[in-house]
Amino acid sequence: MSKDKQKKRGCLSKALLILGIVVLFIVGGIIGYSYMMLNSVEQTKLDDKDLGITEYKPPESSDNNVVQPAPEYNVINIALFGIDSRDPDQTGRSDTMMIASVDKKNKKVKLTSLMRDMYVDIPGHGGDRMNHAYAYGGPALAIKTINTNFKMDISDYVTVDFFNLPKIIDELGGVDIDVKSSEIKLLNSYLDGINKLSGGKPSPNLTKPGMQRLDGRQALAYSRIRYVGNGDYERTERQRRVMEALFQRVKKAGPIQLPGMVASILQYCETSLSKGEILELGLAVLSFGDVSMQQYRLPVDGTFKSQNIRGMAVLVPDIEKNTQLLHEFIYEK
Fold it and tell me: Where are its TM segments located (predicted)?
């Protein structure tokens, strides 16, 4: 080999070495910055042994498409709770309950609403409305109630209360929602109450329907609408629309902006997720590309009965059928 070629190879090797060192510094800097930004997030640990984590075995069926969760599905399920408490010093009931599922294998994000009036067995308390579990025993009992009734494997959660959800939405610059003309009057009524409770500069009433940017208080008022449309069923749809809009806002962030954005959100939340888990999940979702959040609701139409039990108007679900349908939605083949 000529001296010129050897010299060129030497220069190329040095250039690659320098490039490699620069890349390591950049990656290391991003990781260090990410952890620094997430240091403000406080982790509330739960004991996995007391969460009722259950291995699901589908009922006997001739249908070969029945899904059984297994490690190879690589799905992470997280419980999301919205607490309806006007008093920050009291544990309220979970006015909103959802399961967020991150499917790393199929690169999908899914959101399942759990109707608050579902009549289920709450461990240690017997049959009751599902949203009472959080008031009885906080996130641990609420997760255990989901796991034991629907054979789930949830071990982590994120909780936000009545006062903090608007702050999260405002941190992200609001959400884009298509408001119906029939929703405006009730939305403004809820908004007046929220403004009065929260104090400070009030959010303005909406004056017209259509797609528009809602601030935090307006979005909270929108998500609380219950007496327009299909009652509480449609309210869960509104809540999922707000979550989808938030998801789209976060998804636009790059790897460098993500930690700061997540930290700004989670400072208003309570969570069992560690900094590493939060960062890993966020980067995984960003890697999925341009995906929308798939949505579902329990109980599924046609799988429950409306009854009055001990003076409570409740939804009594077919637990076995809803469990099967939930698992088919989350752990698709």
Answer: 12-36
